[in-house]
């Protein structure tokens, strides 16, 4: 059955009656009924699109506008009964689509396998037994068991609750947790007043509850909001850059193609042939494999990272991980071992105390809110000496929150039926604030200023030694039905709990390694300033570069923007301040990563450029994160950053190289169209060229990346790609013009010879440029991956063989070339490689000199920084490019001249004598 929450107003229904209507009960649903209902209502998800099946993914390849353009060209060929041309076009469409499909399917399969490792689960009661079920399998009628840190998996009615506080900021905008209890609320109550109902997307801050699921998936309140908003994820910087890059290419392509088509028609060339040429040109100039290349490269990076213990939840986060230059993290478990032990238990007079230990044990053992290692250490130490909860019964709990920073348990003790014992444990200053007395050898004495100063001195001394210190206080109160935070007053300070969490042995080395990668560590901790400073000294951070939460709350945003980048330690911080610190660092132009695993880390994880959590984190932290570490270790994160930068570098390789090659061909076509008596390439030849050049591009995802590309944060820069496109595109066009001149003026080539030679040169230069421009170093000093190298060489061999394949080559209109013509082709390609190599060295030198490759995102440059002038480096780059091309043309022309003379049977030195030695 289905259940419409809005029509039934389930929050106004009795829980038992509602359960009966949903065919549930004290034992929950039966497994068979839950399975049948899942088939009826569908999976518990607000997402519209599950993973595409193989068939749907294959069909999607044919939805591309470029494929539709080719289909249009094939239809024209069929209408004109040009069967061979139509067959060639359709074969190339099929080959390209299958190539793209294979790569995308393999990538999507890998990503789905990674997602399965992180799929959320929850505890439910089915068949009368508590069991774990995937969140996607929750159905109306399920009884869900919730505790602190859980994400609420469905809309439902609270059946039982114990100190149950829920954060509903995603639904109501209310930043503070609200308490939920069993009961009945009026039917017309708005969401904010439905105190007996919980909603999908909210998170549990403290306490426990049993909830009857009423609405799942799209039928939930959150699902309705997602449907209205289209359930779209915010666009990342990387996705935005790819989109803008696509717009740039499309605009340039439309202008050039229309120009070429207009020129051909004005020269009275056949309209249909000109139209096919323009269509093929549009396809040949488009990086149609870009979506597949990005998907393949990112998924390959995600697979490599998963082998190192770094799971990527969102592929676009790899780019952000690579550009990260600040990492914010807590210290526990990251810089420390995370194995907290209770070292000492002291009374108010700084003496060991068994009574304070017993009180702390009762508080920790009865606590049902947020699980934490401090309580685990207290309980473990107590059990080791035989402590138990016998003789005491829990009456109530005032849960911990991050404003009070303390937890109170109300206990009934044997022998004292007329009163209750308040046991409060928490941060030293927050506990001392509610104390009016302290215990000295069993006697309560006033907590005057002198005695408070003594307690503070003990706290500071222990903290400065690297210990974490909590305080314990008690109060006897009369029996009543309910207790709340207002009862935490006039308490007696009982003593100190002293914990130790040693720094990791390799923490200093790991921090140094991250610094060498251009990543600065900033500690954001709720712990006190003294223990954090002690740890900072031990791991090599600046202990004097500190900002406390007390000072931060008094700072205006502008002041925080100034201080945040210069501060290493943020101490005594509350959750709202964590998010504010992250946003201040972003405002000053930094790419910020945040590592956290607690309920209070979710806002900062969501705000950061890349949220990082661990596999053992609470649900709300894991779901807010982009990257999951299987081990909470900064060294694991360091390897993840390096893998992320390699992945990002390989993605940009394809984009930059393809852009420059396509732009060069575009300019060459535009210039050649009005000058040649025939088309420089037939439509089918352009398509074959495009297909063959794409084959090695798939291997770019496996390519090696130079160490200097991994050693600093990387960023996406449209302006740099534009300059790259123009400079190297024009170098390519210059050699295309040389090719045209050589073929027409030296070899007097006809249409077939011209098209064959230029096809070979165009394809070989596209293959060569991948190996040259894949690195900032000289090509011979950087080794490509074996897959990229051999796939490139294989296609190059095919290129040389094509003119000599007889019937196959004649289908495409190719003819065999003479030895001198082959030599000229090789000479031009070698000249192009040399010119590109020299131009590359100069280009990257000018980019670095202009300051355009800084690891800070250009869109957020600080106003105080001088911006590099964009025209000067660009103009100088063009001048240098012209000089490089000129020298290369002279050298290449000389080689061609010598080859031509040899072909004519003349010795070069004899033929040139009349020029240089006329008197001889």
Automatic annotation (TrEMBL):
Its membrane topology: Multi-pass membrane protein
Record-annotated membrane-spanning stretches: 62-80, 86-102, 245-263, 275-298, 724-750, 756-775, 787-805, 811-835, 874-898
Alphabetical keyword list: ATP-binding, Cell inner membrane, Cell membrane, Hydrolase, Magnesium, Membrane, Nucleotide-binding, Phosphoprotein, Translocase, Transmembrane, Transmembrane helix
GO cellular component term, pick one: plasma membrane
PROSITE patterns membership: ATPASE_E1_E2
Residue ranges of domain Cation-transporting P-type ATPase N-terminal in the record: 9-82
Database matches in Pfam families: Cation_ATPase_C (PF00689), Cation_ATPase_N (PF00690), E1-E2_ATPase (PF00122), Hydrolase (PF00702)
Enzyme category, top tier: translocase
Catalysed reaction equations from the record: Mg(2+)(out) + ATP + H2O = Mg(2+)(in) + ADP + phosphate + H(+)
Keyword Hydrolase: yes
Protein role: Mediates magnesium influx to the cytosol.
PANTHER family, alphabetized: CALCIUM-TRANSPORTING ATPASE
NCBIfam families reported in the protein's UniProt record: ATPase-IIIB_Mg, ATPase_P-type
Protein name: Magnesium-transporting ATPase, P-type 1
